Amino acid sequence: MAQALLSTIDLTVGYRNGKRVAEVLKHLNLSLYAGELVCLLGANGIGKSTLLRTISGVQTALNGVVEVNGRDLTAYSSKELSKLVGIVYTDRTLAGALTVEELVSLGRQPYTGFFGRLDDDDHRVVADAIESVGMSHKTHDYVATLSDGERQKAMIARALAQETPIIILDEPTAFLDVASRIETMQLLRQLAQSQQKAILLSTHDVGLSLPLTDRLWLVTADSTVVEGTTEQLIADGTLNNLFPNRNVAFDSVVMDFRVKD
Predict the structure, then answer these.
(1) pLDDT category, 39, cuts 50, 70, 90?
(2) 136-175 b/e (C-beta count within 10 Å ≥ 16 → b)
(3) pLDDT band, residue 107 (cuts 50/70/90)
(4) Which pLDDT tens digit goes with each residue over 173-210?
């Protein structure tokens, strides 16, 4: 079997405040592989963002290990890690005064040095990233003039320009309308397959994500994280443990949750 690009070994995530420790999710053994789109699902406030920040190196683990390419995450310098893991956050970008090309060019910072000068190869990578998300016709448009869906594509292109094997996205469809959510999920699926990226995203769009997802990380109501293929976790009923309200059940016919009659 192929080696995981990212794996966690008995990982515990949470927060330290002086001597006080708040454990959010414990004893996690998870993995990401090239060419897969993986969705992280769970109720609001259960720790999804904390987990994403920890495995991407933004937040320190309370216990256990995160490995990237078989090496402890903490052994990498910030510059080394920025060439391995690309991050797209939930927050609306404040880069309205930049053009799409300028925004995406920021993804080349790990390679361009202190002054950020782009050479011909950098410009090619930026152009390819913009083309990969279908935004070539918007290359010179200001980000402020883009729709929410287009802005999210530009942010994904920025992550692509980093040329990282792993891309992590925190609620990438949060501000989007239905059509843009579908388009974004389809784009991420296509990028995972065509560019052999390991793409992990958190989302609340259960019905939309399940048909497009290779594997799931499910944070159940008791804060256990279960990993498996989408088909497996639907078939064994694990999805019914996603929410604490037992009147909410997963309907495998409509591929979404409903309130029990």
Answers:
(1) very high
(2) eebbeeebeebeebbbbbbbbbbbbbbbbbbbbbbbbbbe
(3) very high
(4) 988 999 999 999 999 999 999 999 999 999 888 888 88
In the numeric block, which tokens belong to residue 76? 């990498």
The residue range of the domain holding 132 is: 90-163
Distance CA 103, CA 142 (A): 9
Helix (H) or strand (E) holding 181: helix 178-194
pTM for this model (two decimals) = 0.92
Q: Which residues contact 17 (CB under 8 A, 6 or more apart)?
A: none
Give the other-Cβ count within 10 Å of 232's Cβ. Answer: 13
**How many domains would you assign to the chain?**
1
Whether 82 maps to a domain, the answer reads no
176-185: list long-range contacts, CB under 8 Å, 24+ apart: 176/148, 176/149, 176/152, 177/148, 177/149, 179/149, 180/147, 180/148, 180/149, 180/152, 181/205, 181/208, 182/208, 183/149, 184/149, 184/152, 184/153, 184/156, 185/209, 185/212
Do residues 233 and 226 make contact, with C-beta atoms less than 8 angstroms apart? yes
Tokens 């925004």 belong to residue: 103
In a domain, 180, yes or no: no
- Asked whether residue 115 is domain-assigned, the answer is yes
Classify residue 128: in a domain, yes or no. Answer: yes
